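Subject: Sanity check before I submit

Could someone independently write out the structure tokens for this chain? I want to compare against mine line by line before I put it in a report. The sequence has 108 residues.
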Amino acid sequence: MVFGCMDTDTSPSNEDSKSTGLMGMDLGALLFANQMKLTKFSYCISNKDSTSVLVLGNGATPSGLVHYTPLIKMTTPLPYFNRFAYTIQLEGIKVPNLLSFLDRFTLL
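---
Independent answer below. Compare away.
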């Protein structure tokens, strides 16, 4: 299996017949981690000029100094809520040299 990144949502017609697509990494029963019987995975997303890392299985346990975003469980269903999605709590939006803290219901 080969993993890669993309920075466009279109492909040349001669590429359409090749095996390309998206890999689901959420909590659903039919998704990649569950089908592979993986209980852990870690995905570090970098900008397009750097290397991102996807680790599957027990190697996904972080070691050393790691900054992470904790996941939360949604208790209130939202109109667009995917019950299988990993969810995080947004605390602010940073614009260069400015950090704006938001009321937790501002974006609902």
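---
OP: Matches mine. For the report I'm noting this point. The longest strand covers residues 41-44.
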